[in-house]
Amino acid sequence: MAGVTGITSELCGIICVNKPADFTSFDVIAKMRGILKMKKLGHGGTLDPMATGVLPVFAGRATKACDMLPDHDKTYEAGFRLGAVSDTQDSTGRVTEKGSIEAVKQPDILNALEDFRGEIMQIPPMYSAVSVGGKRLYDLARQGVEVERKPRPVTIYSLELLDYDENTGEGKLSVSCSKGTYIRTLINDIGEKLGCGGIMTSLVRTRACGFSLSDCVTLEQLQDMAADGGDFPAVIKPVEEVFSDLPVLRIHGAQERMYRNGVKLDLGRLNFDKTASQVRVYGEDGFIGIAAPDKENGVLRVEKNF
Questions:
Q1: Which pLDDT belongs to residue 275?
Q2: Residue 217: exposed, middle, or buried by beta-carbon count in 10 A (0-12, 13-18, 19+)?
């Protein structure tokens, strides 16, 4: 096992995990610490325990990126069932209301979805990690306390009905949305719009941080790799992939030495898109980090080096 430790201690990058159901995002990190034999791990984009799918895990120096991830769209496939409301807004909770689905036909759902595309306002669910008055909502909810929550703007870029069974009230949605969107709240609100209620029955995140399910490995696959000697570099992705939408700035020689030492470079001497708010900086040996043009002072400010 010493060989595994030697390899993983140098890991720096992203391993995309297909999170299993009934695991929290922290459970995945704890499991991977045991598999990789390293402590410095973080994740991008929390998933509820019932959800599966894309969970990017950042290893080593790449964990510096966790607090500065670009707001990539997230994409989900969500199962739902009409005719019920639950306290958690999904099938893990206690059903608090029931409604009739007899009058709800597929065209009614398609019409209702029109009101939930684009920028909408969402009230965070009580069973969520949002803080109100310094307390997590899920802690209050578990105590039987419900507090007023302010609606927050989120953006639904696409919302499509993939399947619906009029006999059972069960179906599936495809959703592409902004950071901070609660899919179970979206389904709850659609059910309310239809007048019958709705709960989420399953959730698969198919895309996050620019990665898709095809980029993912399972925890079982990682365990098998560890047993075979720990060829983890084969599945680790460079941290710069999450910043692929940013323009590139290449520096070398004296400029690179100055930049690495924290010196703010003169914008006038650099060749890149000056309208950009951030850039990916590359030196002679590859990716260095992320920087931001300080246009007011005419210098390039280091944000994070990897």
A1: 87
A2: middle
Write down the pLDDT at residue 138. Answer: 66
pLDDT at 5: 38
CA distance 292 to 68: 12
Instruction: Give me the residues of the chain with pLDDT under 50, please.
Output: 1-8
pLDDT of residue 45: 81
CA 258 to CA 294: how far, in whole Å? 17
Q: Which of 22, 48, 67, 294 is catalytic?
A: 48
The pLDDT value recorded for residue 128 is 65
- pLDDT attached to residue 72: 74
**Inter-residue contact 48 to 77 (CB < 8 Å):** no
**Residue from 174, 98, 92, 79 nearest 127 by CA:** 92
**Hey, is 78 helix, strand or coil?**
strand
Its pTM stands at 0.87
Backbone angles phi, psi at 108, to 5 degrees: -65, -40
> How is the chain split among helix, strand and coil, in percent rounded to 5?
30, 35, 35
- Which H helix or E strand runs over 183? helix 183-194
Give the pLDDT score at 7: 43
Distance separating alpha carbons of residues 288 and 306, to the nearest angstrom: 6
Q: Contact, 255 vs 284, CB < 8 A?
A: no
Give pLDDT, residue 127: 66
Q: What is the CA radius of gyration of the chain?
A: 23
* Residue 285 annotated in active site: no
DSSP, collapsed to helix, strand or coil, labels residue 248 as strand
Asked if residues 184 and 90 have their Cβ atoms less than 8 Å apart, the reply is yes
Partnered with residue 249 across adjacent β-strands are: 281
Question: Contact 91/203 with Cβ under 8 angstroms?
Answer: no
Contact 16, 56 (CB under 8 A): yes
Query: What angle in degrees, to the nearest 10, is found between the helix axes of 25-36 and 219-227?
Result: 10
Smallest CA-to-CA distance from 69 within 282, 245, 274 is with: 245
